[in-house]
Design goal:
alpha+beta; Nuclear Transport Factor 2, Chain: A; Archaeosine Trna-guanine Transglycosylase, Chain: A, domain 4; 2 domains; five-stranded antiparallel β-sheet; 11 strands
Length: 163
Amino acid sequence: MEVKSRHHLRSDAVAEIQDELAERLGVEIDADTFENVELTAGERDIVLVDGDPLVLYVEDEDGREPFLTVQGANEYPPAEHLVTVDAGAVGFVSNGADVMRPGIVAADEDISAGDLVTINEESHGKSLAIGRALVDGTEMTGDQGRVVESIHHVGDELYELVV
């Protein structure tokens, strides 16, 4: 991943990010600087918050929406849209695997299919990945099936990005 361009965000763009994350995740980001970083080859844009890559834009059919990176979710732990996995799933999720029902110990009931979610590990509550829910939160636990598509995880190029 290489940086194509970077620029400081205007106050209205910062407010939009802060409002979206507060509404969707219950997260209040208080920082001095927000800088948009466009990556080459059509990869995701990220936002440096006080110099750290804490927010990413994720594309969907309605455009793009801001969401926390794994680092952002560990810095500002979300109160909503959480999926918690057991110790047996940690290695798989950390390597970018989609989340399967048997590994899930809890999921917020307000999650709808298509929502972005943060995937946490059970014992310490640390964020391992960001994904898109394939089913509603009430349908995430069970015996079989893929329920969250991984988008960004610990150790991927975005996680290792040095800007």
